[in-house]
Each structure stands twice: as C-alpha cells, then as structure tokens.
Write a structure and sequence with these properties.
The chain has nine helices and 14 strands. By secondary structure, the chain is an alpha+beta fold.
Amino acid sequence: METLGSLPRIASVVAFVIAGIVILNGLLGPVVVLPFAVVPLCAGIGILRKRVWSAYGLATFFFAQLLLVPVILLRPGSSVGRATQIVEIAFWLVLGILFLFAGRSLAASGAARGWPLPWIVAAALTVVPFFFVQTFEIPSQSMEGTLLPGDRILAQEFPRPVPRRGEIVLFLSLTERGEVLIKRIIAGPGDRIRIAKKVVILNGAAINEKYVTHDADQHYGENFPNNEIDVNIPGCAEGQEMISRQVVNGEVVVPAGRYFVLGDRRENSLDSRCWGFISSNDLIGKPLVIYDSIKRTSEQELDPNKGWLGQRRWARLFTIF
C-alpha cells in the first residue's frame, strides 16, 4: 500500500483544525457543542490510519449540513442574511468536496474501506433534530425567575405545539416581525382576564402563579385594564386601543384565535398589556430544555466585542420545562 498522499494528509490536518475550533467554541460558547468535536477528530485519526470512509464520512457530514440552510432561512423569525447564507453554503461545499476527494485518493491507493454506517448515523444525528427544534437565547429580564438573560434554550418547532394556558411559548413580535419573543400564555380564546393588585383573575378565579416575581412598578400599575401604561412605548398605543375594544365589565375578553401572554417578571415585561393579543399563527414553538447559560456583566451585554464573554451557570444546564 502506498504511503498517505498529500490530499489525505491535508484533509487530516483540516479535520484536526476543525475539531480544535469546535472544542474552543464549546469552551467559550455553548458547552454542548463539545461532543461535535468527536466527528472531525475521529475522521482525522481515521484518515491517518488510511480508512477511506473516515474521509467519505466527514464529507457526508458536511454535505448533510446543506440540508439545514433552507430550513433555517424559511424558519419564522430567521435573521440569516443573504451574505451569511452564501458564505455558509460555500463553506460546507468546499469542506465536503475536500474530504470527498481525499476519500477517493485513499481508495485509489488501496486503503481499507472502513465502516460507512457510523458516519451516516453521525451525520443524521447532527442534522435531523434541527428540522424539529431551534435554538434561542434569552435576551432580557422579562421572564426572570424562570428564564434568565443568557439562558440558551432548545425549543420545539415542529410539530407546532398546541398552546396551553400556563405554558411558555415563542412567537413573532407584533411590532418587530423579524424578532422572536418568549412569554407565558395566561389566557386563550374566550377567556376573561383582569389583574387586581398584581393578582391575575382568570374567568373569575385568582391564579396561583408561583413562577412570578414582582418589582417596584415599572411599566404598569397594580391593576389591569387601566390607563396607567406609558403609551409612548413602541406598540403600546396600538395595543391599548386593541384591548379597549375587548373589555367587557372591566375584564379583557380574548377573541378567537388569539392569546394573552405575560412575562414572569411581571412589572418589567412588555407583553399583551402593552401591545395586545398574539395570533395563533405567530406561535413558533415552546422551550424544551436549557442547554447552556451564560451570565454577563452590563458592560459585556452592551459591547458586541465582549458579548461572547461571561460566566457559565453550570447549575442551569439541562433544566427541562
């Protein structure tokens, strides 16, 4: 058997570099990406050991990532731009082609074929789940008590979950259509709701909300509906007008196909009290698990160059909803 050719040797170096980048990203970013370093690491070792499917397998892995590009672009609230899309497609294609030709070079040299199934399974496991779930990072304090700024969650997107009272949901913002928000459903179609001295009254009965935290009043008073909301906040004037048409006997009646949502940090949340009901068509999914959590200082939050820094909250990892 011939010695390892130049192309497989280059491919093995690239595989080790990719594994190192993934490890570094896992240490500085989402820790759950660390296991993904196993794929290029095993490929690099396999190529050095002259296993054809170690190269073909990594090529399969990179080509499989291309299947996610249209899924991400068509996903509601996707912020991926055309330039980013082109760069990602080119990146996966170049890497896939490199390892494909490295595999052909190994095969031509008489190298052992190896096992294709583990590589096909690895590619499927890193792609197929993302047809059903999406990742989301909590940007604000509006759900604090349940979700903290810097929590990274995995959310079910397909099949679209049936919204239920008391559940946390992700949905498209009414004011910024490209933005995804996260709140808790308090009332659904036909429900009657009001807030009296910070206590939510749903269909005539007070709700026991153990998840809620209260602050000194920020955006709202103790009662709702009322005229105390600052209508200068973007979206609040339109929302108040919408809600005013649905008030019957001092209670807001939720119309068909709509939901009333609130934040868990009740006085610091812009929600249905501000911009009104959300449509069932705007619901994207619901959180499944916190897969990572980063605590950042105020300076790190404001500075894009420092936004990736922070202290990992290990105790919050793998919290299931």
